[in-house]
C-alpha cells in the first residue's frame, strides 16, 4: 500500500443518497468561539451501568486545542472494555467514545493545521510532528504525548467537561466522542476529505485503520503469501482487508462464531476455521497442516495471551511473523520457549494503531476508499440515534454488530 496493488475487484459503493452527508456551516467565524457550550453528552457514571444522556458544559479550547462538533461516532470494543472496568485505569464519571468525525467549531491559540469549518477525525494516538518518533518513518509512538487512557487534557491534566452541577467529567483516550461537542489537542486531530460520508469516515478513527495498518505497515504483508487471523471481529476483518489489498494469496480466518465464515468472505478471507470444532488438535496444528509448515503472517486480534502463543506456533519457521493487535489486561504475561525463539527464526511484534501515522497515512486510506478499493461500507452493520446509544452497547455485547454508527443529530 506504499504502492497499493489490490488484487481483487473494487467495492461497489452504494448510491450517495444512502449515506449521511457532512452538514457544514461553511468556514465562517463561530458565534460560540471563546465561550462555554452547553450540549448533550452520554456519561458513564458507574462501571457497567447504562450511559446517561445529560446536559454538560464544554469549555472553549486552550492553547493547542480544538473544539469539535461531533457529527457521528461509532462504538469500539475498547469503549466497552473501559466501561466495564471497575478498577484503575478506569475512572468515573467519564465521557467515553473515540471513533468519530466532526467539524471544527473553534480553535485555541497556536493552532494552525485546521480552521473553523474543517472536517476532521479525532485519533487517540498523537502525532505531534516534532518528536524523534513522529519525525521518523520507523515509529508512530509519539514521545511527547504517549498513549494513555487519559483523564484530562495531556498538556495540563485538566478537564474541559463539567456536568450541569459543575462537577468534573473525565476525558477518554484523548477524544471523548460521546458528546455533541468535545475538546481535543491538535496532536490528536487529523483533517480529512469532506466528501467522505461521515458514517464511513468515523471508521478511520480507530478500528479499520488499526487492522488495515497491521497488515500493511506493521507486518508488511507481501503479495502471494499466506495470512492467518485469530479472531474475526471488526479488527480481524480489517486485517483481512489490509492483507487483501497487499495481495495475500490465502487468508485464513479463525473464530468461534461460524457466522464469521460468510462475513469474512466479504473482506477476502479464503479459508475458515471454527476453533470450537477442531477436536483434540490445537489451532497451530490445524494451521500448520493447512499451510504445509505454517502461515507467513499470523495476527492475534482477540486480546488473549493463549492465542498469541497459538499464533506464534502457527507461523512458519525461518521467516514467519506474528503480530499482536488485540489487547489483553495490563498484567497478562506471555510464556514462550527461549529455545524456540532462537531456533525457529520467527518474529513476534506488537501493532499499535496498525503502525499508522495519523496525519499522513490516514490520507492514503481515504484515497483508497474514494477510489473504491478499500472497503468501509461492509463494516457498518447497525446505525442508531444518539438517544439510543445504549442499544449500540447491547448489539456489540450480543455479538450482533461489527460497527454501530451513532448519529448525534440525524
Automatic annotation (TrEMBL):
Belongs to the zinc-containing alcohol dehydrogenase family. Class-III subfamily. This is Enoyl reductase (ER) domain-containing protein. Keywords: Metal-binding, NAD, Oxidoreductase, Zinc. One of its GO terms (molecular function) is zinc ion binding. Its cofactor is Zn(2+). Pfam families: ADH_N, ADH_zinc_N. Homodimer. One of its GO terms (cellular component) is cytosol. InterPro entries: ADH-like_C, ADH-like_N, ADH_Zn_CS, GroES-like_sf, NAD(P)-bd_dom_sf. It comes from the Eukaryota. Residues 234-359 form the Alcohol dehydrogenase-like C-terminal domain. Residues 63-192 form the Alcohol dehydrogenase-like N-terminal domain. One of its GO terms (biological process) is formaldehyde catabolic process. The keyword Zinc applies. The keyword Cell inner membrane does not apply. It comes from Lactuca sativa (Garden lettuce).
Amino acid at each position: 500500500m506504499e504502492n497499493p496493488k489490490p488484487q481483487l475487484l473494487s467495492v461497489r459503493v452504494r448510491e450517495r443518497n444512502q449515506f449521511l452527508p457532512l452538514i457544514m456551516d461553511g468556514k465562517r467565524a463561530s458565534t460560540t468561539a471563546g465561550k462555554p457550550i452547553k450540549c448533550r453528552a452520554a456519561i458513564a457514571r458507574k462501571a457497567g451501568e447504562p450511559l446517561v444522556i445529560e446536559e454538560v458544559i464544554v469549555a472553549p479550547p486552550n492553547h493547542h486545542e480544538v473544539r469539535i462538533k461531533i457529527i457521528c461516532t461509532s462504538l469500539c470494543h475498547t469503549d466497552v472494555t473501559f466501561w466495564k472496568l471497575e478498577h484503575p485505569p478506569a475512572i468515573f464519571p467519564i465521557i467515553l467514545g473515540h471513533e468519530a468525525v466532526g467539524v471544527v467549531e473553534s480553535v485555541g491559540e497556536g493552532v494552525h493545521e485546521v480552521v473553523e469549518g474543517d472536517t476532521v477525525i479525532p485519533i487517540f494516538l498523537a502525532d505531534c510532528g516534532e518528536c524523534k518518533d513522529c519525525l521518523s518513518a520507523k515509529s508512530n509512538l509519539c514521545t511527547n504525548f504517549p498513549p494513555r487512557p487519559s483523564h484530562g487534557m495531556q498538556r495540563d491534566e485538566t478537564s474541559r467537561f463539567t456536568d450541569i452541577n459543575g462537577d468534573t467529567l473525565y476525558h477518554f483516550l484523548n477524544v471523548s466522542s460521546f458528546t455533541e461537542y468535545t475538546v481535543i489537542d491538535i496532536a490528536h486531530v487529523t483533517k480529512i476529505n469532506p466528501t467522505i460520508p461521515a458514517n464511513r469516515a468515523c471508521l478511520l478513527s480507530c478500528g479499520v485503520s488499526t487492522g488495515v495498518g497491521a497488515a500493511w505497515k506493521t507486518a508488511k504483508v507481501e503479495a502471494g503469501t499466506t495470512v492467518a487471523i485469530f479472531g474475526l471481529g471488526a479488527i480481524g476483518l480489517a486485517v483481512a482487508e489490509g492483507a487483501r489489498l497487499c495481495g495475500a494469496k490465502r487468508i485464513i480466518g479463525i473464530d468461534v462464531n461460524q457466522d464469521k465464515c460468510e462475513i469474512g468472505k466479504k473482506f477476502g478471507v479464503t479459508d475458515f476455521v471454527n476453533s470450537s470444532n477442531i477436536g483434540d488438535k490445537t489451532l497451530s496444528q490445524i494451521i500448520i497442516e493447512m499451510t504445509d509448515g505454517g502461515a507467513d503472517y499470523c495476527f492475534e486480534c482477540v486480546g488473549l495471551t493463549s492465542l498469541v502463543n497459538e499464533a506464534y506456533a502457527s507461523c512458519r519457521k525461518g521467516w514467519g511473523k506474528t503480530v499482536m493487535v488485540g489487547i489483553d489486561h495490563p498484567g497478562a504475561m506471555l510464556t514462550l520457549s527461549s529455545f524456540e525463539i532462537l531456533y525457529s527464526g520467527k518474529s513476534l511484534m506488537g501493532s499499535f494503531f496498525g503502525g499508522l501515522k495519523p496525519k499522513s497515512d490516514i490520507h492514503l486510506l481515504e484515497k483508497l476508499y474514494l477510489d473504491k478499493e478499500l472497503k468501509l461500507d461492509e463494516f457498518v452493520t447497525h446505525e442508531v440515534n444518539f438517544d439510543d446509544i445504549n442499544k449500540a452497547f447491547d448489539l456489540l455485547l450480543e455479538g450482533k454488530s461489527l460497527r454501530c454508527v451513532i448519529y448525534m443529530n440525524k
